[in-house]
Specification:
This protein is an alpha/beta fold. 40% of the residues lie in helices and 13% in strands. It has a single domain (3-332), classed as TIM Barrel (Alpha-Beta Barrel), CATH 3.20.20. The strands form two sheets. It has an eight-stranded parallel β-barrel, surrounded by five helices. A two-stranded antiparallel sheet has the order 1-2. α3 crosses α4 (103-117) and α9 packs across α10 (267-276). The relative contact order is 0.12.
């Protein structure tokens, strides 16, 4: 296991982060994502810790808070040894103010998350998306308040556009408040959209990238066929999310399969290794439901793809040129400073 700094926080986090979204399985879509109970969670968290993972991510909305409760109990006294992250924005009650990024909801949600997790602080507190109903300045002020109160050490965001991140951090800079140090976003070899605007922004701002759903909800595991057949009981079999260009995804799987065979590895492991080879990636969130799946994911840290293999995968998954990207590339020719 390798470790990288999480943006400008000074924290070192494992290149694989354990995501607890599959813990619980209560309410709405969470029944389709996972129903890991306490005993199984205890075992999976133990395997993750033994494998060198020191970064754990959850959210209040996962299974109506059950994910946080289960993760907190699974970590127990080991909580002090890990970097713990959660999120706020989702609906946590029936009332009109039980959702969003208003100061009232942020303060109430954080206190509830800390109680469920059994901890006094979060190392990373992330907004789970943008809230058009809440003034961004009020949201950033509330987040600064929880940092100053010692309940949160660093801030992050998830599922935001590049301009939204820059606007939020611009507000923070003007007021000398804490800024977003990380972005949690969807990124896979078959879905490289964030490379257009978000990746350049992250590099410019020195922000960390936490990748969610690195296997596109299991579609890149190599266990599904073009006709829709796949293993029963998997997330993709009952919950077709996140949206993926299936033909593009299967072209990537076809390219990864011989590489996997050459290394004696699974296709899933190759997909994870490709992400780990991307310079912008700080950590990849894995959300294993079974022990064998977790152990296979952990082995991705030992799989080093050759330059030729990476080039082959880059070719099959490359984004088509779009404006203004192709113009920016043309104009950059001969103008980029030499790197020493």
């Amino acid at each position: 296991m390798r470790y990288a700094t999480l943006g400008r926080t000074g924290l070192f986090v494992s290149e694989l982060c354990f995501g607890a979204m599959t813990f619980g399985g209560r309410g709405g879509i969470w029944e389709h994502i996972g129903d890991t109970a306490q005993a199984d969670a205890d075992r999976l968290v133990g395997i993750a810790l033994d494998g060198g993972i020191n970064f754990f991510d959850t959210a209040d909305v996962y299974s109506d808070g059950d994910s946080e409760r289960i993760l907190g109990k699974a970590l127990g006294a080991r909580r002090k040894d890990v970097v713990l992250a959660s999120k706020v924005r989702g609906r946590m009650g029936p009332g009109p103010n039980d959702v969003g990024l208003s100061p009232a909801h942020i303060h109430a949600s954080l206190d509830a998350s800390l109680a469920r997790l059994g901890t006094d602080w979060l190392d990373l507190y992330q907004i789970h998306g943008f809230d058009h109903a809440a003034p961004l300045e009020a949201t950033m002020r509330a987040l600064e308040d929880v940092v100053r109160a010692g309940k949160v050490r660093h801030l992050g965001c998830s599922n935001l556009a590049a301009w939204q991140v820059m606007k939020a951090n611009g507000i923070a800079a003007v007021h000398d408040w804490s800024r977003f140090e990380s972005l949690q976003a969807y990124y896979t070899i078959a879905s490289r959209d964030l490379e257009r605007e978000i990746v350049p922004m992250l590099a410019d701002q020195g922000m960390a990238l936490m990748v969610w759903s690195p296997l596109a909800g299991g579609l890149l595991s190599g266990k599904f066929s073009r006709d829709g057949n796949g293993p029963a009981g998997t997330r993709r079999a009952t919950f077709d999310f996140p949206p993926v260009d299936k033909e593009r995804a299967f072209a990537c799987v076809d390219a990864m399969r011989p590489i996997a065979e050459a290394h004696g590895a699974s296709v899933a492991r190759v997909a994870l290794a490709w992400l780990l080879a991307q310079k912008v990636v700080s950590t990849v969130i894995i959300g294993a439901r079974r022990e064998e799946q977790l152990r296979d994911n952990l082995e991705a840290t030992n799989l080093v793809l050759s330059p030729e293999e990476l080039a082959a995968l880059d070719r099959v998954s490359a984004l088509s040129p779009e404006y203004p990207g192709w113009m920016l590339s043309r104009q950059a020719a001969g103008r980029e400073p030499e790197r020493r």
